[in-house]
Amino acid sequence: MGQGAEGFNKFRDKSVDFNTGSFVGENGINWNYSQCKNYSAIAEGGIVKSKIQFSNDSTAEINSSVISGGIGLLKIDYSTLSSVPVKLDVFVNSVKVATLSAPSSEKSVTLSSDNIAVNIDKPFYIRIKQSNGGSGQVMIDKVFWSQFSSKEYGTLYENIVPNKGKESLAKASLLKENSASYHIYPNPAKDFVLVEMAENQDVVLKLFTLTGQMVLQEQVKGIDQKISISNLKEGLYIYKILDEKGKLITGKLIIR
């Protein structure tokens, strides 16, 4: 990580009550907040560190202004001291990329999310909100993100198309000219997928959750091999296809 971070030390709202407003953060990014307040603590060395505290209200959230450069990975440090469990939803643009949780505890608990694989090569914004009004109070300590890198993650294609049923397996069209000739169809999918390729060859298909957990790895031999996904939960996944020449293609797959 290290392309961008927000530590909330420029969040100056000293209201006793939870409040709504905005502030300019450490990277010059504007952050809007609702039903939040400043939580300050003295860190090692006597330095006062600020956190942004969410009330246990379904409208409690923060969201950034648009950030350029794209996003590869997202990571969130958070802490809680709550008699009820905590559940936070994390969005990048309008897509929920993760749900963060913490058990009820009588002691302060500090947690960190896994590296959340987002992989968007266009401007983006980050939104973090309470999942519901029953979620406990929570502090966001720091938000980190890395810039999208085609070298590190392959070339990302937004190749999601409507599902037209079994009679017509809708193939996803590539959005970029001169793109590599691999992608997955049908998309959205239910029981199986196939890898479409211009030439009959062997490739490796890997499927990841949005939190970066690999849930499938399959050696694909030829263009007509069906890969079963019937045991996977519904949702949005990241796929990676590695061909014989070492070329990596990355995209998104919806499972219904």
State which percent range the strand residues make up.
over 45%
The run of helices and strands is EEEEEEEEEEEEHEEEEEEEE
General form: elongated
CATH topology of the largest domain: Jelly Rolls
Distance between the termini: 32 Å
- The secondary structure category is mainly beta
Task: Provide the CATH superfamily of the largest domain.
Answer: Galactose-binding domain-like
Name given to the CATH architecture of the largest domain: Sandwich
Estimate percent helicity: under 10%
Rg, alpha carbons: 21 Å
- Helices, by number, come to 1
The domain tally reads 2
Q: Would you report the number of β strands? A: 20
**Low-confidence parts lasting 5 or more residues at pLDDT below 50?**
152-180
Structural features, described:
This protein is mainly beta. Helix content is 2%, strand content 49%. The protein has 1 helix and 20 strands. It has one helix spanning 150-153, and strands at residues 4-6, 19-24, 30-42, 48-54, 61-64, 71-80, 86-92, 95-102, 109-112, 116-120, 126-130, 138-145, 155-157, 182-185, 192-197, 202-208, 214-221, 227-228, 235-242, 248-255. A hairpin with a 5-residue loop joins strand 3 and strand 4 (48-54). The protein is elongated, with a radius of gyration of 21 Å. The chain starts with a strand and ends with a strand. The model is unreliable at 152-180 (pLDDT under 50).
